[in-house]
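Reading a protein record of the kind used here takes only a little practice. Think of the row as the fold of the chain written in a discrete alphabet. A record is reproduced here so that you can trace the correspondence yourselves:
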Amino acid sequence: MKDKVVDIAPYGPAVTDETKKLADAAKQNIIDGKLVVFAGPLYDQTGAERVPAGQALTDKDLLSIDWFVKGVDGQINK
């Protein structure tokens, strides 16, 4: 987001002003480095800890994820 490689799509008409403010604030925190989206603790669907508290996935890790986080229904066919 900081380098404008990715961004949030325009908000649709159903998105409230309050939700827009929350999303815009989260976006700014990501840009400022205050919010790390893929920071631990993160658990996979089986409950196994994949990223411990205090750590975050690197770009290399993000490109090689082959698991879903806890709470996501579905499966990855390898």
Q: What stands out?
A: Helices lie at 17-31, 59-63. The two ends are 30 Å apart (CA to CA). The longest strand covers residues 49-51. The mean pLDDT is 94.
